[in-house]
Amino acid sequence: MAARKKAKAAKRKAVHHKARAANDTGEARLSARPIWQGNLRLSLVSCPVALFGAVSRANDISFHLLNPETNNRIRMVPTDPDTGPVERKDLVKGYELEKNKYIVLDNDELDAVKLETTHTIEIERFVDADDIDRLFWNQPYYMVPNDDEGVDAFVVIRQALEKTGRIALGRVVMHTRERLVALEPRDKGIVATTLRMRNEVVDPAKAFEDIPSAHPSKQMVEIAEKIIEQQEGPFDPDKFKDRYEGALRDLIRRKQKGEKLVVAEPVEESNVINLMDALKKSLKNKGRPAPKAANTNTKKRKAR
Prior knowledge:
Number of strands: 12
Radius of gyration: 27 Å
Order of helices and strands: HEEEEEEHEEEHEEEHHHH
Number of helices: 7
Largest sheet: 8 strands, mixed
CATH class of the domain at 36-57 and 117-199: Mainly Beta
């Protein structure tokens, strides 16, 4: 069993390194190591599983902070304001009761309150996907069997979810936090998406309560609807690129070649036009923006 696990880990690592060695195509890659390992349990049925991130930021451009005088990379060193630099391994965790007053907790005390969900995702309920508000969906992960002997149980749970059309809800501890997790079948595996808790989601009614009531003309709404119809179509993620990321990569390539860069003048956006005129022009352009952005505010909103 241990040999099989090592073989699978070696295979994932080889795939990971092969992907890194290949030319960067901008495609997201599966991580070499799972983010979480434990058991998936439905009543008396249990199987070992692993979670891998379904999304990746590995292709994002990142920067290091450098000292411009030496070009040395700056190191972030934990520092005590009284005694100076300290070793990170010697630090303890403290909960602030009030300014500069803490409750100190050591690792043994934190381990004592660990929950069963630290190592097991136990399915508690089955719901319809439409019952979960999109505000509560958080981070997606891919769930796969983590042992050959547990594949049969994994497949049984996955196919049962697929045939009933239900989403399973369970709990998992990740990054020291217990999270609600939604499980849904996808291809041969399961997508596990963490859900936000009630106290993490701001009530939209409270967020929008200061927006004043407005009654636009029927004609303007109809024109806006036609603009929407002109631009409607299926969602194709390949058609949407991070233009800022692309501009950064182009900037880096030009700097690498020694090109002298010129700073562009800022674009003026001071035109004030009538809202109805803006809608009509948008409809004429089939929803495409004008070459220069226009400000459609006809008057400043009064301060509340």
